[in-house]
Write a structure and sequence with these properties.
- By secondary structure, the chain is an alpha+beta fold.
- Helices cover 25% and strands 17% of the residues.
- The protein has 9 helices and 10 strands.
- The strands form 2 sheets. A 7-stranded mixed sheet has the order 1-2-8-5-10-4-3. The chain has a 3-stranded antiparallel sheet with strand order 7-6-9, with no helix packed on it.
- Strand 1, helix 1 and strand 2 form a beta-alpha-beta unit.
C-alpha cells in the first residue's frame, strides 16, 4: 500500500459513541461519515446473560477455527435464529434496525445476512484487517454505495486487551483491497450490551486477546436483499420453526422479495407462502411504488 493511503496517526479519528436512544437518523449520519459507531448499552447485561445461557452449549460443543482468518483460538457458531430467542429479539432490535433501514434505504429491501457468536479465546492473534463486503467475491462496489450494515454486540465488555474489534473510522472512503497493519486501527472498546454498527466497506478486524478470559461478540449483519446471504436462512432454520416466527422476522430472513420480481415462487407467489400462507401478498404488487421510485431517480 502506498503511504499516501495509510491513515496519518495525526488524523486518527476515535470511534464515536452515541447513547442508546439516539435516533436512526443520528446513527445513520455517523455511519455515513465514519462507517462505524458504537451505540452504548443498548441491551441490558441481563439480556446478554440470557444470550450466553441459550448459546453456551453450542459454543462449548463447537471447535475452534481452522484457518488464520476465522481464528485458531476463536469459536464461531451460527444458526442463531433457530437456536436463541434472545438472538431473535436482537436481530429485530428497533434502534438497530431503524439505523440499518436508514443506511440501506437506497435499495428496495434489505435482509439478514448472518448471525454468529464470535468467541475470541485467550492467546488469539489479531485477525487480518478486511472489509466484510469482500464476501461478495471481492466485487468492487462503487464507493458510497453501501451494501451492508452490520453489528457486533458486546456480550462481554470489549477492551483493547481482550480483543475489541479493531476499526479504521472513515475507511469506507479508502481504496479497495488495501492491506493495513494493527497500528492503523483503533479498538472499538465498549461496555457489555453495547453494539458496534459498521458498514460493509469499513476496514476492521477482530483484535488479539491478551487477557485470560474469552471475549464474546454477537455478529448480526444485514445486506441489500438483491445479494446472496452469507448464512443461508432458508436452510439454517428448520421449516417447522420458521412456521412459528413472526412475519417481520420471516421477511427479514428472506421470505420476501429482494426487489421487484426477485425471489418469487413459481406463479409469482410471495416467498412467505412457503411457511406462512396467511401472510402472502398476491401478484408482484408494489408496481406503482417501483415506478414512482424509478421516476424519482431519473
Ligand atoms: O470478532 C470481531 O471483533 C470481528 C470479526 C470479524 O470482523 C469477522 O469475522 O469478519
Ligand atoms: Fe469482519
Amino acid at each position: 500500500m502506498m503511504d499516501a493511503e495509510r491513515p496519518d496517526p495525526e488524523d486518527r479519528m476515535p470511534v464515536e459513541h452515541l447513547p442508546a436512544d439516539a435516533t436512526p437518523k443520528q446513527v445513520a449520519d455517523v455511519l455515513a461519515r465514519d462507517a462505524c459507531v458504537v451505540l452504548d448499552r443498548v441491551a441490558s447485561p441481563d439480556t446478554m446473560k440470557r444470550l450466553r445461557e441459550e448459546l453456551d452449549p453450542y459454543v462449548e460443543a463447537a471447535g475452534a477455527g481452522v484457518d488464520e482468518f476465522s481464528g485458531k483460538h476463536t469459536t464461531r457458531i451460527g444458526g442463531l435464529i433457530a437456536r436463541s430467542q434472545t438472538a431473535r429479539e436482537l436481530v429485530e432490535h428497533p434502534a438497530v434496525l431503524g439505523a440499518v433501514r436508514e443506511t440501506l434505504s437506497h435499495s428496495h429491501n434489505f435482509q439478514l445476512h448472518l448471525t454468529q457468536v464470535i468467541a475470541i479465546g485467550p492467546g488469539e492473534s489479531a485477525q487480518a484487517v478486511h472489509r466484510d463486503q469482500w464476501a461478495f467475491d471481492f466485487f468492487p462496489f462503487p464507493q458510497g454505495y453501501e451494501v451492508q450494515c452490520n453489528t457486533i454486540w458486546a456480550m462481554t465488555d470489549f477492551t483493547e486487551e481482550n480483543g475489541a474489534t479493531r476499526v479504521i473510522p472513515g475507511s469506507h472512503r479508502h481504496p479497495d483491497r488495501q492491506e493495513y497493519k494493527l497500528e492503523d486501527t483503533e479498538p472499538a472498546e465498549m461496555e457489555q450490551g453495547s453494539a458496534l454498527l459498521y458498514t460493509g466497506a469499513l476496514y476492521h478486524g477482530g483484535g488479539a486477546n491478551q487477557s485470560d478470559a474469552t471475549r464474546y461478540g454477537l455478529n448480526i449483519t444485514y445486506a441489500l436483499a438483491w445479494l446472496r446471504q452469507e448464512e443461508n436462512q432458508y436452510l439454517s432454520v428448520p421449516r417447522e420453526l420458521a412456521a412459528e416466527l413472526p412475519e417481520s422476522l420471516l421477511r427479514l430472513m428472506g421470505y420476501a422479495k429482494g426487489a421487484y420480481a426477485l425471489g418469487y415462487i413459481d406463479d409469482l407467489r410471495d416467498p412467505i407462502e412457503a411457511v406462512r400462507p396467511e401472510f402472502a401478498k398476491k401478484g408482484f404488487g408494489e408496481l406503482d411504488q417501483v415506478r414512482e421510485r424509478l421516476e424519482g431517480e431519473r
